[in-house]
Design a protein that fits this description.
The structure holds 2 protein chains of 2 kinds.
Chain A lengths: L2 H7 L7 E8 L5 E6 L7 H17 L8 E5 L3 E8 L6 E8 L5 H11 L6
Antiparallel strand pairs in A: 1-2, 1-5, 3-4, 4-5
Chain B lengths: L2 E2 L13 H10 L4 E5 L5 E6 L2 E6 L6 H7 L5 H11 L9 H7 L5 H20 L6 E4 L13 H19 L2 H5 L3 E3 L12 H9 L6 H8 L3 H13 L3 E3 L30 E2 L10 E2 L6
Antiparallel strand pairs in B: 1-5, 2-3, 2-5, 3-4, 6-7, 8-9
Helix pairs in contact in B: 3-4, 5-6, 6-10, 9-10
Classes of the chains: A alpha+beta, B alpha+beta.
């Protein structure tokens, strides 16, 4: 297991979190994925979605930088958290089983510990 | 050891291009460097057949990303490099030394180096390489686990297709000078901060490559954002109108009204004469 995988695996300890990935928010390159395979693994689509939301929110007059995108489906929650840094921003994407998870807790944890992923 | 394109030695003899060579060297679990000449050209560092680093003048390297952003100081870099390359000058200890000294996180090192490999591969793919040589290993900052050459080739192909969607020939786009479209800076609604930074850097003199180096970003990310900004009507290219998709016009040469007839002699500069200003004229006007 690489350092990056170990680092991301911390989020899997949160209740209901099934998959976590670190993705380049511009290029869509997936640096690392941990957890269950086959869920929200396409970093390119996650990056495209975030770019679209960022553009449209700006056009709509939203103020402040985009922090996260939360999408809910009937079975899952999907959280995309933006990490700003020098160079390209990064995304931490997390998939949660909504029967077992606490979305607010997961989002709070992503926000508080995103910077620790690269430490 | 040096193996040159066209030489009879080893696996480097038969492949048609650099990706094919890299796949052959993957089979050999080769450790060393593939030096590619051309514009921009560059060095592909292999460890056990996997791509560990790519350094090219066409894209910011891991080194320039770290130093330019101030993430690592020049002094720390120099010291860590001296320590990391070992007594034989061939060890890849620079990254581990930076991590061991607490200058950089191991995960951050992995991210920066991985991004630089894919961005460097994209930059090198923007033009056709001249020739290539397989050489011995040299010390550099490497992706700890290495990346499969096939994965890099696949992603590079995808990236070229993404840019071609926006502009046509990606190599040409990389060399085109960009400027803001009229009115782009006076919008009522604020721009995405990333786009605004690109707009501020687009001064009509810089190419996408120049902008990437200025902002410390990857060249593919910059070109992709610029393509997106073009579709939003924020940019214009120097000397040609922006196009949302590749041109399908017939490729016949058509002389423009302002250009001289093809058989006219080229303008020639004549030596300055006493009492006259600079004179650029055609040969017919020569005294």
């Amino acid at each position: 297991m690489t350092t990056l995988e170990e680092s991301l695996s911390r989020f899997l300890d949160l209740p209901g979190v099934t998959t976590v990935a670190l993705v380049d928010a511009v290029t869509g390159l997936t640096y690392s994925v941990v957890g269950e395979a086959g869920e929200m693994e396409d970093g390119i689509e996650c990056a495209e979605l975030t770019t679209l939301v960022t553009e449209r929110l700006c056009e709509a007059g939203a103020t402040g930088d985009l922090e996260s995108v939360i999408v809910t489906t009937t079975s899952r929650y999907h959280a995309l958290h933006v990490m700003r840094r020098q160079g390209e921003p990064l995304l931490i994407t997390a998939t949660l089983d909504r029967q077992r998870s606490n979305l607010a807790l997961a989002v709070r944890s992503l926000t508080d510990h995103a910077e620790d992923v690269l430490a | 050891m040096t193996r040159t394109k066209g030489s009879t030695e080893g696996a480097s003899r038969t492949h048609r291009n650099v990706p094919a060579l890299l796949l052959a060297l993957r089979e050999e679990s080769f450790t060393g460097t593939v030096e590619v000449s051309g514009a921009p050209g560059g060095s592909i560092h292999l460890r056990n057949g996997l791509i560990a680093a790519i350094e090219t003048p066409g894209a910011p390297t891991a080194e320039s990303t770290m130093l330019r952003s101030g993430r690592v100081s020049d002094e720390d870099w120099t010291t860590a490099r001296a320590e990391g390359q070992g007594q034989d000058g061939r060890q890849d200890g620079l990254g581990p030394v930076l991590v061991a000294r607490g200058i950089l996180g191991a995960a951050e090192l992995e991210v920066i180096c991985t991004a630089a490999v894919f961005d460097g591969a994209f930059a090198m793919a923007l033009s056709t390489p001249g020739s290539w040589e397989v050489r011995e290993q040299v010390s550099t900052i490497v992706v700890p686990t290495g990346i499969e050459p096939s994965l890099v080739a696949k992603e590079t192909t995808r990236r070229l297709a993404v840019i071609a969607q926006y502009f046509g020939a990606p190599g040409e786009f990389a060399r085109t000078r960009i400027r803001p479209a009229p009115g782009a800076n006076g919008r009522a609604v604020p721009l995405v901060p990333r786009y605004q930074a690109l707009l501020d850097s687009s001064n009509g003199r810089r190419t996408p490559r120049d902008i990437a180096f200025t902002l410390g970003r990857g060249i593919f990310g910059v070109m992709k954002d610029l393509g997106r900004m073009n579709t939003l009507g924020l940019l214009q290219w120097e000397s040609r109108a922006p196009t949302g998709r590749p041109s399908t016009a017939p490729r016949t040469a058509r002389p423009s009204a302002g250009s001289p007839a093809p058989d006219a002699p080229l303008p020639r500069r004549v030596p300055r004469q006493k009492g006259r200003g600079p004179n650029i004229t055609d040969t017919k006007a020569n005294p």
